[in-house]
Amino acid sequence: MLDVFKTSKNKKENNEIVLDKNNIPKHIAIIMDGNGRWAKKRKLPRTMGHKAGVETIRRVIKEAHVLGIKYLTLYAFSTENWKRPDDEVSALMKLLVEYLRSELAELNRNGVVIKVLGDITKLPTDAQKEILEAIEVTKNNTGVVVNIAFNYGGRDEIIRAVKLVCEEVKCGKIDSEDINEDIFERFLYTRDIPDPDLIIRPSGEQRISNFLLWQCAYSEFWYSNVCWPDFKEEHLRKAIYDYQHRDRRYGGV
Ligand code: IPE
Ligand code: IPE
Ligand code: MG
Questions:
Q1: 215-227 pLDDT tens trace
Q2: pTM of the full predicted structure?
Q3: Which of 58, 163, 185, 248 is the most buried (most CB within 10 A)?
């Protein structure tokens, strides 16, 4: 199954990417960008790019399973993406519903756990319903945890956490003197999820776009010029290969 791990030597041979199976990032987060430009290049409407991007999601989840990645976070809709034309926003909402409807059984068979990061109460009711069902159906699975970041913004998440902490202080459950990083993290959407080891952004942009602002403190970043619909298993493996050759010092020497 794991032919990418063919030898234990941690190097690239004949263009084949050989990964160190003892150093697979536990949590990979991806900013799924470039759908619009992919479509534009083909003279297609932007929504066709988003559709093509769903195929990449299928491939990447499968590959994450093969490689033994435990957490995969996919940035699908930001708190700023509401600024887009109404028809594009509705197309993205519709795609989310269609994706969960058509894919849930298969995801469940593969042991995937679906979680959502973001404020879903602002989504159309059918989208909320599909999301809650997917979370419920997959909650006892033990495979890859797929966090869909939808209506997610890092700043929004931090403000929300601050408000929740204030509530706890107000009702006397927490003493403000005791607030520390561990306590604060319990109020983030990513509660119980380790920080991302690796953040991948395709499409040529090199910015964070309000993604996992608290959690990315010591993440490794990996960029690629391919647009998300063209992102293949080998890009994921190359990102992990590069990650495995970085020296994570966390401020130490
Ligand atoms: C990413 O692709 C999908 C979402 C942000 C929802 P884009 O739609 O941002 O594609 P580009 O960046 O315009 O090419
Ligand atoms: C980030 O991409 C959000 C998602 C991929 C969901 P954007 O396309 O919205 O980011 P900017 O506007 O280029 O920074
Ligand atoms: Mg974009």
A1: 999 999 999 999 9
A2: 0.95
A3: 185
